[in-house]
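Recall from the previous chapter that SMILES is a line notation for molecules. Here it describes adenosine-5'-triphosphate.
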Amino acid sequence: MGDIKVEGDSLLYGDSFAVPVEQVLAVTSSSVLSYAVEDPVPSLVVTPIDGTPTGEEIQKYLLPSLPSHLDSRRSHITVVNSSTAGTQKGKQVYDKLLHPLLQTLDIAHEYIPTTSASTISELGVSLSTNEPGLPRTIVLLSGDTSIHELVNSLAPISLTQTITLALIPTGTGNALMTSLSRGTITSAVFGLLHGNPRPLNPFYVAFPSDSKEVIPPTVNNPDGKIVALETPDSSSGARKIFALVVASWAIHAALVGDSDSPEYRKLGNDRFKIAAQENLARNVAWHGPVRYSSVQSREEEVVEGPHSYLLMTSISSLEPGFMIAPTAEPLSGKLEMVQMPFLSGDEIMRVLMLAYQNGKHVQEKEVMYKEVEEVRVTVHEEEERMRRWCVDGRIIIVPNGATVAVHKGVENIRGWNVEVVG
Ligand SMILES: Nc1ncnc2c1ncn2[C@@H]1O[C@H](COP(=O)(O)OP(=O)(O)OP(=O)(O)O)[C@@H](O)[C@H]1O
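With both inputs in hand, we obtain:
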C-alpha cells in the first residue's frame, strides 16, 4: 500500500520502485504497465500495485477502464503484422510488447501475420463481406504502404460502418504516424491506450478508367509489370485512390517511379539518390494546365505550365526534416499543393534543400504553395514516363490528354468511416 505519483521525471510507488515517466504506458487499478528499453524492441514490464494515484501529473497515465476500441465486448479486435515491413521487427513487437499488454488487460483479439503481398488487401475486402457485427478495431504493425493498401481495399458498402485503426509504426518511412507525433513504437502504444479515435480524412486522386499501374518487381516477378488500374469501385468509371501521404506528378513522381524500377533496384539503398540526380540532370519540363481552387479564393485558377514539380500532401514532412508543406495538419482533411514552374535541375535542388530548413522553400518566388480544395491536371505529354503519377508510392500512368483530379480529405471511404486512434 502507498501513494503512486509522478515526481520530476519518475513515477514513484512508495519506497518500492521508480520508473522513468517516458517508459510508463499505463497505470491501472492493480498494476503499472511500463516498458524496458531493449534491443531491438522494447518489452512489457508489469508491476503489481496496491496504492492510490495521487497528484495531477499522474492523470495522463491512468487507465481506469478500457476505451471502447480496446474493449473486446464492444469491438472486434484484430492485430495485423505486416511481416516484411521495415526491418521486420513487427513480430517481436507483438511478442514482447503488444501481446503481453493485451493479455494483461484481458483484451481478446485475433492475430494475423501477413503471409503474402495480398494479405492486407484480402483482409480489407473481407470486412465488407462479413456480416456486420461489432465495430472493428484493426491494430496495424506496419509502415505507410500497408495502411494505404488496407484503406484502398475497402469495398463499397451501402450502410455506413466504422473501422478504428491503431497504427504501430514498424515500416521504413512511417510518415503518417511521425506526422502525428507517434513515430515510435512506444508512443504509438501509448496512443492506442489513451488516445481518442479521429477521422482519417484521406484525400483522393481520381484517375481516368484507362489508366495503368506499375507493379514493382518482386522475387517471383523480377521485371515487374504494368497492369490496368483497378480499384474496388472500378465499375463506376473514374478510379479513385485514397491517399494518406502524397500525390505527385512531374519530377517527384518520375524519381519515385525510376527508383522502383528493376534497373534501379539493383543499385540498392542508393537508388533514390541516384534517381534524383539523374532526373535533375535531365532538365525536362512537364506540360499540361494545372487548375486548382484554393481554400482562400474558392475560385478556379490555372497555372498553364510547363512545370517541374507538382505535389499535393496532407502531412508536413515526407521524411524526418524534409518539411515540404509546413502548414499541413494531418487528419484535418486539409490538402496543400506545392508547385514549381520549369526550372533547371540546380534550381530545383536549391529550392528543395530549403525544405530541410523548416520549410523555407515556400517563401521562394519560384514556389507556389496553397491550401487547396481540388487540383485538376490535364497531362499533355507524348512520352509515357512523363505521364507517371505517384500516390503514396504507387505509380500510375495516365493516357495523353487525360485529366487527373486530386481532392481534399473526405470522411467517408466508399461507405466506411475510418478513424485513427492516437
Ligand atoms: N509476407 C509478405 N510477403 C510479401 N509482401 C508482404 C508481406 N507482408 C507484407 N507485405 C507487403 O509489403 C509491404 C510493406 O509495406 P509497409 O508499409 O508495411 O512497410 P514499409 O514499406 O517498410 O514502410 P513504408 O511504406 O512506411 O516505407 C506492403 O505492400 C505489404 O502488403
